């Protein structure tokens, strides 16, 4: 097969790493890709939101399948354009993608189809949003309605902080994504990330993990796109997994199909395990980042047949995926200042060293100078991942590898996996 992989982050590098290992693949092209991905595939400088350019590239390489990595490509309508061009695609249409591209849409969708979630209100103006705080108690959850690269959520500890977050959103901090604001009830419980595949009709669970959203140790600091993950996560008991499937996954796929947008791709269910069962925090319409990284490390099965099955409607014929009997950890090395104003351009050395058995480093935000110097080019720069017989073993490998990487302008959390280890 010839496959076109769309995107340039750590998630896409992990997908490239796994796809390239498949004996079914003849040619793998990534657009636009990143320097780390060059070891697994050809790189072509077409942006993830350049729909016409990506369709043309898919035609040029005679792609048998296009795999959409980032949500921005979904929102741009890439799957819709590929469908019109008759090119198989792993990834939902823009209509189905509203499950991520609009939090207000998702809340109304949850109401319509009976998905358990938090109480909320959607506000169109700053004054209305500040007034709506009267109906909630601290801590307040303030969300920009649209796509904000994982940074549009504020957990405000008091009224003043909540009003400041509302002012920032309507003041343009998140661009058009903040033109509407969703205020939500704060949910008590333990967070989790569960993934499910769908081909428009049939669906299948596809692993779970736990993310660490806050920038600093001890769940301190601002929300980020994710500072590290581990899989499997103990919060996902067999009972919780079954509840999520029955109450969130299957109703969501059935509902979006009933709305006229059958779902083809992977759905990321971010949930809170509460005393009364799982409640939806939000949907993402792609593999999580950095959850994808630990899933790919643990996935024993060939990924490609599952991607193809989602694209061509044969998922019901696929067996459940096989997983390694190992733990996997991903630690994000971010640029200092992330998520507010990450410091760009810092030099990175040491990736060619022996980082240890079972360690894989995925590039998330890097660039190469003309002289071959590797530099930071984003907020989250590297994903240092490792497998081990236990969570402790995997985590030790990841942090030992980080100690060998020379990136003075970077930082990471040192407590990835703390919830599981605290058990």
Brief digest:
The protein has helices spanning 10-20, 51-60, 71-75, 78-85, 98-101, 103-113, 126-132, 159-170, 238-258, 291-298, 304-312, 391-404, 418-422; strands at 2-7, 27-32, 42-43, 65-68, 89-90, 120-123, 140-144, 153-156, 181-184, 190-199, 203-211, 214-216, 220-223, 228-231, 264-274, 277-284, 327-335, 359-363, 366-368, 374-376, 380-388, 410-411. The chain has 423 residues and is an alpha+beta fold. Helix 1 (10-20) packs parallel to helix 10 (291-298), helix 2 crosses helix 4 (78-85) and helix 6 crosses helix 9 (238-258).
Please describe what this structure looks like.
- By secondary structure, this protein is α+β, with helices and mostly antiparallel strands.
- 30% of the residues lie in helices and 28% in strands.
- The protein is built from 13 helices and 22 strands.
- Strands 10, 11, 14, 15, 16, 17, 18, 21 and 22 form a nine-stranded antiparallel sheet that branches.
- A hairpin with a 3-residue loop joins strand 10 (190-199) and strand 11 (203-211).
- The radius of gyration is 20 Å and the shape is globular.
């Amino acid at each position: 097969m010839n496959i076109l992989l769309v995107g340039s982050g750590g998630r896409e590098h992990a997908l490239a790493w796994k796809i390239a290992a498949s004996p079914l693949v003849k040619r793998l092209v990534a657009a636009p890709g990143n320097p780390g991905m060059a070891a697994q595939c050809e790189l072509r400088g077409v942006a993830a939101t350049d729909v016409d350019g990506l369709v043309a590239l898919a035609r040029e390489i005679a792609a048998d399948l296009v795999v959409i990595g980032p949500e921005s490509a979904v929102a741009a309508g890439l799957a819709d354009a590929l469908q019109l061009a008759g090119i198989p695609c792993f990834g939902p249409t823009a209509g189905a993608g509203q499950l991520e591209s609009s939090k207000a849409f998702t809340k109304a969708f949850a109401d319509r189809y009976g998905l358990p979630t938090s109480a909320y209100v959607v506000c169109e103006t700053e004054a209305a949003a500040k007034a709506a705080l009267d109906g909630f108690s601290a801590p307040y959850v303030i969300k920009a309605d649209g796509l904000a690269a994982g940074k549009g959520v504020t957990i405000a500890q008091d009224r003043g902080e909540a009003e400041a977050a509302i002012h920032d959103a309507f003041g343009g901090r998140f661009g058009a994504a903040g033109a509407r604001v969703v205020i939500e009830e704060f949910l008590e419980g333990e967070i989790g990330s569960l993934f499910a595949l769908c081909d428009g009709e049939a669906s299948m669970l596809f692993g779970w993990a736990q993310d660490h959203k806050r920038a600093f140790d001890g769940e301190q600091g601002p929300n980020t796109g994710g500072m590290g993950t581990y899989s499997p996560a103990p919060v996902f008991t067999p009972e919780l997994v079954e509840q999520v499937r029955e109450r969130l996954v299957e109703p969501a796929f059935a509902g979006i199909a009933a709305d006229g947008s059958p779902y083809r791709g992977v759905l990321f269910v971010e949930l809170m395990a509460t005393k009364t069962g799982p409640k939806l925090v939000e949907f993402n319409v792609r593999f999580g980042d950095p959850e994808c990284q630990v899933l790919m490390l643990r996935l024993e099965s060939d990924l490609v047949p599952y991607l193809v099955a989602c694209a061509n409607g044969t998922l019901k014929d696929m067996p459940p995926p096989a997983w390694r009997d190992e733990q996997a950890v991903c630690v994000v090395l971010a640029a200092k200042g992330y998520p507010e104003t990450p410091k760009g351009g810092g030099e990175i050395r040491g990736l060619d060293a022996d980082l240890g058995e079972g360690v894989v480093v995925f590039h998330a935000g890097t660039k190469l100078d003309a002289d071959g110097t590797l530099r930071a080019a984003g907020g989250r720069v590297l994903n240092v991942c490792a497998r081990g017989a236990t969570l402790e073993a995997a985590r030790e490998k990841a942090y030992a590898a980080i100690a060998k990487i020379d990136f003075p302008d970077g930082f990471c959390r040192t407590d990835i996996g703390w919830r599981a280890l605290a058990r």
